[in-house]
Amino acid sequence: MRFSLVELAPVAPGGSKRDALDRALAAAEEAEHLGFHRFWFAEHHHVTGYAAQDPAALIAAAAQRTSRIRLGSGAVLLNHYSAFSVAERFLMLESLAPGRIDLGLGRSTATPLIDHALRRDRSSQPADDFPDQVHEIIGYLHKAFDCAHPFAAIDLTAGIDGVPEVWVLGSSGASAGLAARLGIGYTFGGHINPGGAACALRHYREGFTKTPFGTGAAQPMLALNIVAADDEASAHRLTWPARALRAGGRDRPIPTVEQARAELSASAKAQPSTIVGGVVPPQISGTPATLRAQLEPVIRASGATEVMVQDMVTDAAARTRSRQIIAETLQAITV
């Protein structure tokens, strides 16, 4: 099966965002070497712990350092942009790296203050028009506007041979039907809502309609937070920084394992990080010997044909080994 990565560019304690961005771009090269299919950059605004604020800029930089791996956004937060600007920017990226660009679309809040600061028009109430924006982007990329549409005369694709592959990202299942009707890829955030994955991805698969806007086949993707190491105790400890970040506030660098050890209570450190009886924890850990047995039933139950991996590991050696184990494990699973 296919396996991919979403990169948050986590900032290590004592490090800078520049350091985090350097690591993130090096990680794209490493992911290509390890056989990952896609490498997506997240969008997080006004956050101390993550350096990935603008996926498009990072995609452009990573395109110059890789040659095979698909590069994309996980996700562009459409509530902060016009559909026109997003379509135009990603068509430009498609020109830089033909046949390798993914446009992952989502929506999220960055707190009311930052949401307000991000808005160009502050005189009216924000509207939840995500489906309309996705339709508009499809219209620009595929010249799919009805002839009576006011934007039908706009051709952003002139002089560009291909278009980015469009994905909808969601964690509640509400976007599954939208992606299915449009015939495009769908990614469910299982690291956010582990219990909702099977239902949302089934809804997507069953409602999928073949259109000219996608690959022609359903692409159900499951995103999970996964870390791995050569022994169970070390793998479990790699889940602690994410727990400490949630418990102690997100506006800071990503804690080290040792910082998390000091911050977390004994019960918090002991919370399960393995899949037992089909129950998926927010962070999954495993070893070369145990990870496949955990993941394979969940992947099969969800119907996913691709897994998107997220982690918050800032130690370079531990992160490389974790991703190597994960790649080897997922590569061995057939669906």
UniProtKB/TrEMBL annotation:
InterPro entries: Bact_Lucif_Oxidored (IPR050766), CmoO-like (IPR019949), Luciferase-like_dom (IPR011251), Luciferase-like_sf (IPR036661)
Listed SUPFAM superfamilies: Bacterial luciferase-like (SSF51679)
Every Luciferase-like domain range: 1-303
Family from the record: To bacterial alkanal monooxygenase alpha and beta chains.
Protein name: LLM class flavin-dependent oxidoreductase
Organism expressing this protein natively: Dactylosporangium maewongense
